[in-house]
Write a structure and sequence with these properties.
The complex is a heterotrimer of chains A (837), B (116) and C (262). By secondary structure, chain B is mainly alpha-helical. Helix content of chain B is 72%, strand content 3%. Chain B has a two-stranded antiparallel sheet with strand order 1-2. The radius of gyration of chain B is 18 Å and the shape is elongated. Chain B starts with 5 loop residues before the first helix and ends in a 10-residue tail after the last helix. The chains are: A mainly alpha (837), B mainly alpha (116), C alpha+beta (262).
Chain lengths: 837, 116, 262
């Protein structure tokens, strides 16, 4: 072990840190895992997709500019509007949020990287490859063509026989891997990787916003992924989940889709609101008012947003009482939103506001977003919704919410943080002109589109008759959209000019208080030469010399130890320093795993299932390879971090980021399982053409063995980490063998049960039973892999009484698997009971 | 979860009860309509479906009221200005908000169109 | 004190009687930016209602438009003041912004709106059950099939034209034979989906005889736009009866059947 002596000379310290943190040049860039680089890649890629989505919007407006337009035919038009929505939602908004968060979060929290740098890199490649699948499909003319919410049965095989719907289901699911992995990573990073002393109440608000958003992603995306998998299984293998003739129900898709789709709106809005809460106080030149009220309102908003999904389904024919619940919940979100808006307004009054360019965009945000919020209350009112649902009124409303509530704050963010990315501020700015073009163009397009909708123009029609009174409205909308496009082009030119010709202003040009401005600009690979102690919400306001002191190595970890990448981990709430987190450096493994994943998804798309199995196994295999070279062979005890303090490494802390990640990932997994269980029960209770012609006769021996295997595996895994077993290699080995064996027994029993499922292609009953069984079987199989992995780590000497992380992670998985397995067995018996005539 | 992290956990609990109540109200309404519970009358004019919904509402409200009292007790015993006090205060506010939200959706309960 | 003064004024507006609110809303709408561009009339206009359901929703719209415009105006005025005359509200304590603007103001606006909306929605739902006559509607790619059962048991059909009598509510039982469609005659009532495997209900009532256009509102494939229909409201029951008697008989595939469960 090399000595951990703080390096006081900033240049020497920089060289020493950069040597271990930097990403190699040339082809080596493909091995980048650093959050600054990965975040930048997400941001740039997302803006490229924004350009593509914008071009598609131009095509739509060109087609609708005049009645009886002949520019695009209906088939192309259908592909264009479907892709416009899909690209903007899945390939622009969410990835941009991930990129901004990856880039900013560690810097704001006073950490040197995210908790799982390789996971962010893997997420990026999944996003890029998944997005590429969709774009290539579009270029080949087989893009999805049934609308971005993909309503069944229009998207089912009989009505969309081509590859179009499969492209959507597979491309989007591939991209969503990045959203789920980002959710886990953001949560763990906010909770564990902060500067010492930064208790939860001292966190910058942006971190609160992202913590809440990440939890929403964790619970919001699984229903969509489950729905997509079910629909793809129906399309590929004929299992009828959404076919009403065979006991499925098209309404189930709508529930699963909007269970995701409505929280999605707030997943997009909250980070943007976080940006506003960060930027606005800087230009108001005072701290934000109502910190506690804002934290409370974003948590409330997050929960409420999961109680709104049916307001997209007011015309489905659901009873009034149920609609009223959702209508009430939908209007209730106005309150936490209003709390934030008035906190911002109050901050402006209390400060001395300056109208700089980012602030101008925030004023644009206020006007547009408040308008969108008000029309949002209108569409939450059931009778009014019956009239405007599926009309251009809703199109106008959603653009007010998403462009106002997301794009404007992101444009503000671009101007605000561009000096951080590049170290440059603009000499001559076209920004104000660009703002007015975008703002006027946007309102010209969408304000009058409310009227178009009220006059009866429905969504997704490729042409219309001149007699309807919509000609002028549409023409003005189209002109407005082109004005907005010119504004965005000017914005791009402005940004390019600033990157190329801007002048270098030195640190912290806006005099902000948050820690990201304490790094150099552009930021060095390691962010902070040493890590600060934080005891205030605006550390840079409190001590102006902080940045220099950190560069001189006067904080924690102002050195390089063992040539490793180190940052600090803290206790979740108090922010007391707890562990040294040792992070991985650049590696090609994320790219390799993503390629293996791409093989899996492409094979599913082209229905070559042997290759798909190979791709899946290769993905799991390469993911396991990530652990090679990580962990210690012997207990090393507490390590010095400077200022006479000693803390253990994360592997010995008993509260390592990977353990947190597993627990949090299991919440997402539980949501997926819950969606599946909900879907099965929903079909059994509500779907037409039930009861099924034939019920399963479950063999009690099989279900008994499955239950016994599941429970035994969980108990044995629990024993393997008990304090009496953990120190002894032989005992550990024995219990881990029992775990693996019990999983094998459960797997065999579950497969046996799957063979007893009656005719899964003939009725949704069999289809649902089969899919739930497969879901558990997959967990059991992975459980066996986890147990064997634990054995291998144990044998190689990575496990001891204090270094139990590997086995603890496995134990969480085994316990979870046992829980969902037992619930599944009960569910299957309950379904037989509910479905019996 | 150590005792330190309790305040943080409780921030999610108030609205956790709300979302559970909300989902259950919707699930019981839909299931009840499917099995025609609204036609089974209890105590004069109240249908068994409506009774079940009111019961669910009351149970969740009781849970929330207990939670509010608990958060306030904890807040009173926590030193002011600490991060724990912040978390307990946030939990209390969120529980109060969850109570308001439950009352707000409860406005719909008396509607007669329970199954159409 | 800005926030609380504004909210009191607003509360008063919402609390006034229905007629005053409506007159106020109309007057406000006349000044709104939108008005010069909109002639509210149009064959598919929700703002030129021709039936009780559509009329009550149009009234709801005008009230909400007025309220929303006021609230938006309030926010814009506050923002303008914050930059131009920050002194007027510099002394307002943070708690007042949060409680007054964030909690009290929206609560005062939303409570009457929600109560009114629940009541008006409940009226529309109750009315659904009261159709004097029933017509079955089958949607399929890309046409509407209306079937009428006469007293003698014969079933007749019309494609893309629905015959009814003005002033006589008709109860529609709607379903789909293939994908999801949505039945919408904007001047008469809100829309309701036609979903395979389910039957939905809609009550349609036209004030005066005439032809009212309708469309499919839910995207249903390549010819979605062309899936249009007309409601013909006749002057008397006799006239409607005569027209229906002249229609061709329905085929078995035109009948509504929702597979066991409603």
């Amino acid at each position: 072990m090399s000595e951990a002596v703080p390096i006081q000379d900033p240049i020497r310290l920089h060289k020493a840190l950069d040597a271990v943190w930097r990403t190699p040049p040339g082809v080596g860039r493909l091995s980048a895992v650093n959050h600054t680089i990965v975040g930048r890649r997400f941001i740039v890629t997302a803006f490229v997709f924004f350009g593509i989505g914008g071009l598609l919007a131009m095509l739509i407006r060109a087609q609708l500019a005049t009645p009886r337009g002949v520019f695009l035919g209906p088939e192309i038009y259908n592909q264009v509007f479907t892709m416009h929505g899909t690209v903007m939602m899945f390939l622009f908004a969410i990835p941009l949020i991930e990129g901004v968060t990856f880039y900013l979060l560690p810097k704001m929290l006073g950490a040197r990287d995210m908790a799982f740098p390789r996971l962010s890199a893997y997420g990026y490649w999944c996003y890029l490859f998944g997005g590429a699948i969709l774009i290539v499909g579009m270029v080949l003319g087989v893009a999805p063509n049934a609308g971005w919410f993909m309503y069944t049965p229009l998207t089912s095989r009989p009505f969309t026989p081509g590859i179009n719907s499969d492209l959507w289901l597979i491309g989007v699911t591939f991209v969503e891997i990045s959203a789920l992995s980002a959710a886990v990573e953001i949560i763990v990073s906010v909770l564990k990787l902060r500067a010492p002393g930064m208790s939860l109440d001292k966190m910058p608000l942006f971190a609160w916003y992202m913590l809440v958003t990440a939890f929403m992603m964790l619970f919001g995306f699984p229903p969509l992924i489950v729905g997509s998998v079910l629909l793809e299984v129906e399309r590929a293998f004929g299992l009828p989940f959404f076919d009403p003739n065979r006991g499925g129900d098209p309404i189930l898709w709508q529930h699963l889709f909007w269970l995701f789709g409505h929280p999605e709106v707030y997943i997009i809005f909250l980070p943007a609101a976080g940006v506003v809460s960060t930027i606005l106080p800087v230009f108001a030149r005072r701290e934000i008012i109502g910190y506690l009220a804002i934290v409370v309102s974003i948590v409330a908003l997050a929960f409420l947003s999961f109680g709104l999904w049916v307001h997209h389904m007011f015309t489905v024919g659901i009873p009034h009482l149920a609609l009223a619940f959702f209508s009430a919940a939908s209007t209730a979100v106005a309150i936490p939103t209003a709390v934030q808006i008035f906190a911002w307004i109050g901050t402006l009054f209390a400060g001395r506001p300056q109208l700089r360019l980012p602030m101008l965009y925030i004023l644009g945000f206020f006007f547009i977003f408040v308008t969108g919020g008000l029309t949002g209350v209108m569409v939450a009112i059931v009778p009014f919704n019956w009239q405007v649902h599926d009309t251009h009124f809703v199109v106008a409303h959603l653009h007010y919410v998403l462009v106002g509530g997301f794009v404007f704050p992101m444009l503000a963010a671009t101007h605000y943080w561009l000096p951080h990315f590049t170290g440059r501020v603009p000499r001559v700015s076209l920004g104000v002109a660009a703002f007015w073009l975008i703002f006027v163009g946007f309102n010209l397009t969408f304000l009058i589109m409310h009227a178009t909708g009220l006059l009866g123009m429905t969504r997704r029609i490729y042409t219309y008759d001149p007699a309807n009174g919509w000609e002028w409205l549409n023409l003005v909308s189209s002109i407005g959209s082109f004005v907005m496009a010119i504004g965005l082009a000017l914005f791009t030119v402005d940004v390019a000019l600033q990157i190329r010709f801007g002048r270098r202003p030195g640190r912290n040009p806006w005099r902000a208080g948050t820690l990201e401005w304490a790094t150099g600009t552009p930021p060095p690979s390691y962010n902070f030469a040493s890590i600060p102690v934080v005891d205030t919400r605006s550390p840079l306001k409190q001590s102006t010399g902080l940045a220099v002191a950190l560069a001189q190595g006067r904080g924690y970890l102002g050195f390089v130890r063992d040539g490793r990448l180190e940052t600090l981990g803290v206790e979740v709430t108090s922010g007391q320093v707890e562990q040294v987190v040792r992070l991985p450096g650049p590696t090609y493994l994320p790219l390799v795993s993503a390629v293996a994943t791409a093989v899996f998804f492409l094979a599913v798309l082209f229905q070559v299932y042997v290759v798909a199995v190979i791709g899946f196994v290769a993905t799991i295999g390469t993911l396991l390879l990530w652990t090679r070279g990580h962990g210690d062979h012997a207990d090393r005890g507490a390590m010095p971090i400077g200022h006479g303090k000693y803390v253990p490494s994360h592997g010995e802390s008993g509260s390592s980021p990977s353990q947190w990640a597993m627990w949090i990932a299991l919440f997402g997994d539980a949501t997926a399982f819950g969606s599946l269980a909900f879907g099965s029960l929903y079909l059994a209770i509500v779907a037409p053409n039930w009861p099924p012609p034939q019920l399963a006769q479950w063999n009690l021996l099989l279900s008994g063995s499955a239950a016994a295997g599941l429970v035994l595996a969980a108990i044995a895994a629990g024993r393997s980490v008990s304090p009496t077993v953990l120190p002894h290699a032989a005992k550990r080995k024995r219990w881990l063998f029992v775990t693996a064996g019990a999983h094998s027994m459960a797997l065999a029993a579950l497969v046996g049960m799957a063979f007893g499922v009656p005719a899964p292609t003939e009725h949704a009953y069999g289809a649902a039973a089969l899919v739930v069984l497969c879901y558990v079987a997959l967990h059991v199989a992975l459980g066996a892999v986890f147990a064997l992995y634990g054995l291998w780590r144990s044998r190689r000497g990575f496990v001891s009484l204090v270094r139990s992380s590997d086995l603890m992670i496995g134990r969480a998985w085994h316990a979870f698997t046992a829980a969902i397995g037992v619930v599944t067995l009960l569910l299957l018996h309950a379904m037989s009971w509910t479905a019996s005539p | 979860m150590t005792s330190k992290q309790q305040g943080f956990l409780f921030m999610a609990l108030g609205f956790g009860i709300w979302i559970a109540g909300f989902s259950l109200l919707y699930a019981v309404q839909a299931t009840g309509c499917e099995f025609a519970w609204q036609q089974v009358r209890l105590l004069g004019s109240i249908s068994s479906l409506h009774a079940a919904l009111y019961g669910l509402f009351a149970a969740h409200m009781a849970g929330l009221l207990w939670l509010l009292a608990h958060c306030r007790r904890k807040l009173a015993t926590t030193e002011n200005g600490t991060s724990d006090a912040f978390l307990w205060r946030a939990s209390a506010c969120l529980t109060l908000a969850a109570i308001a939200a439950l009352v707000w959706i409860g406005m719909a309960l008396p509607l007669p169109s329970v199954c159409r | 004190m800005k926030g609380s003064v504004g909210s009191k004024r607003l509360g008063a507006t919402w609390g006034t009687t229905w007629k005053r609110a409506k007159r106020f809303a109309r007057a406000f709408a006349a000044c709104a930016l939108l008005t010069p561009l909109i002639a509210c009339a149009g064959p598919l206009s929700t703002l030129e209602p021709a039936g009780p359901a559509a009329r009550s929703i149009a009234a709801l719209w005008w009230v909400m438009l007025a309220g929303a415009t006021l609230l938006l105006g309030l926010v814009i005025c506050l923002l303008a003041l914050a930059f131009l005359r920050p002194a007027v509200a510099r002394g307002v304590p943070p708690a007042l912004w949060i409680v007054g603007g964030g909690l009290a103001l929206p609560a005062l606006v939303l409570t009457p709106l929600m109560v009114y909306a629940l009541a008006s929605g409940e009226n529309l739902f109750q009315a659904r059950a009261e159709g004097r006559t029933e017509v079955d509607v089958l949607a399929r790619q890309w046409e509407w099939v209306f079937t009428y059962r006469s007293a003698d048991g014969t079933v007749r059909r019309s494609n893309n034209v629905l015959h009814l009598t003005a002033g006589q509510p008709v109860l529609l039982r709607i379903t789909s034979a293939d994908v999801i469609h949505s039945f919408w005659v904007p001047r008469l009532a809100g829309k309701i989906d036609a979903t395979p495997g389910h039957v939905t209900m809609l009550r349609l009532n036209a004030d005066v005889p005439g032809r009212y256009r309708g469309v499919c509102a839910e995207f249903c494939g390549i010819a979605h736009r062309d899936m249009q229909m007309t409601v013909e409201a006749h002057g008397s029951e006799d006239e409607t009866g005569r027209v229906i008697d002249g229609l061709p008989p329905a085929m078995p595939e035109d009948l509504v059947d929702a597979g066991g469960r409603p």
